[in-house]
Amino acid sequence: MTTISVVIPARNDAEMLAACLEALGRQTRRPDEIVVVDNGSWDTTALVARAGGARVVEETVPGIPQAASAGYDAAVGELIARLDADSVPPPEWIAYAIERFEHEPTLSVLTGIGDFYGSTPLVHTLGRVLYLGGMLASMTPYLGHPPIFGSNFVMRHEVWRELGPEVHRTQREIHDDLDLSLHIKPWMQVVYDPRFRVAISARPFETFSGLRRRVSWVVPTLRNHWPDDAPWARRRARRRWRASERPPRRMRPAA
User: pTM (2 decimals)?
Assistant: First the structure.
C-alpha cells in the first residue's frame, strides 16, 4: 500500500489549522502521517496540531519556503502531499491522489486548484480569475508544464530528494511553489487536474495590497532562475532530454 505524508506549514494559524486537521480526519483514506511545521507561532498552533494527531516540526527561520522545505525533509511517506493551514480538503482528496499515482507510474507531481471560502463573491472572483487563473495561464507556457499550486499538490518522495538541495529555501518573499516548479526536471511529469480541489481561504485577497503583495513575489522568484531557466532554455533542455530518450536508428544492412 502506498504511504502518504501530508505537510502543512503554519504560523499563528490555530483556528484554520483545526479545520484543516478535522477535514484530514474525515478522509476516506487516512494519511499515514501529518507533519505540521510550526514556523515561530506564538498562538496555540502547535497545541492544535498535536491535538489533531500531527507530528510537529519546529522551524524558527521565518518564511513559507523554509517551513515547507523543512516539512518535506521530515516527511517519510512515499508520497508527500502539501496543504496550507487554511486548506480544507474534501473526504476523497487523499484516496483520489493515491489512485492516480498508483495507476500512473510516470506521474511525478499532481497539482490541483482551490475554491475560495470566506470574504465576498467579488474577492472570490478576483482570486480565482486574476491570481489562480492568471498564474495557470501565464506560467504553463513559461514552464512547459503546469505550475505547482502550493495549497494543493502531491509529489513522489524521490522528486523531493532530487530537488530539495536545489530550491531557494531562505528567501521569504518568493513563491515556494513556483520556485519548486522551476526546478522540475525535463523527465518529471507534472499534471494539473481540475477535479483535484480543496477549499482555501480568500483572506489574502481581501485587500488590494494583499493581492499586490502576492503578485509582487512572482518577479523575484523568476529572477532567481534567470537566464538558466528562461523559457527558451527550458525548451532546449526538454528537446535534449527527449532526443536522448529516443531509440537509436536501426542500421541499414550493408549492400
Answer: 0.93
Side chain identity, residue 104: E
In a domain, 136, yes or no: yes
In a domain, 254, yes or no: no
Tell me how many domains the chain contains: 1
CA distance 177 to 144: 15
In which order are the strands placed within the sheet that holds 152-156?
Answer: 55-58, 33-38, 4-10, 79-83, 152-156, 107-117, 189-201
- Report yes or no on 250 lying in a domain: no
Band of residue 124 on the pLDDT scale cut at 50, 70, 90: confident
Q: Write the CATH number for 119.
A: 3.90.550.10
The residue among 167, 168, 158, 230 whose CA lies nearest residue 188 is 158
Is 10 within a domain? Answer: yes
Partner residues linked to 116 by β-bridges:
200
Q: Which domain holds residue 169?
A: 4-243
6-45: pLDDT as tens digits:
999 999 999 999 999 999 999 999 999 999 999 999 999 9
